[in-house]
Amino acid sequence: MEEFNLGNQTNQPQNPTNNKKVIGIVICIAVFVVMIFAIIISSTGDTKTYLTYDNYMKIQTGMTYNEVVEVLDNHQGDLDTSSSYGGYTLSYYTWTNSSGTRCIVVGFENGKVCAKSQYGLN
Would the pLDDT of 122 be above 90? Predict the structure, then answer.
């Protein structure tokens, strides 16, 4: 019986498991890249178009919270703080975009606008 030493050569097919691992890694990297681009686009292309200087200027002293919400295209503000003392209630609400580059802050005394502030509005 004769033996042939072919060294490191094999006639076996490539392992399909290795191909699946490579394909899986490539798919994971592609999904990760797409997610990063989506995050970048969503933070720069904020869709909160109601945060404008024109809308800010429509907010007037004496308006109620519901009137302010109406001016801001029916978007609810986030209650930052509220306190009561001696029959007065003071509350501050904030409307801001996701990246924090545009913001409207409105102060209410007994449910009526008494102060407002903004930054980043054009």
Answer: no
With 0-12 / 13-18 / 19 or more C-beta atoms within 10 angstroms meaning exposed / middle / buried, residue 15 is exposed
What's the rounded mean pLDDT across residues 29-58? 69
Quick one: DSSP state of residue 67?
H
- 111 touches 90 (CB < 8 A): no
Q: How distant, in Å, are the alpha carbons of 20, 37, 41, 66 from that of 34?
A: 21, 5, 11, 39
| 3-class DSSP assignment, residue 98 | coil
Contact 80, 58 (CB under 8 A): no
Nearest one of 2, 108, 19, 101 to 59, comparing CA atoms: 108
Residue 17 identity: T
Range 74-88 burial, b when 16+ CB lie within 10 A, else e: eeebeeeeeeeeeee
> Residues 116, 109, 48, 44: is their CA dihedral positive or negative?
positive
Of 72, 54, 55, 64, nearest to 113 by C-alpha is: 64
- How many angstroms separate the CA atoms of 113 and 56, rounded? 12
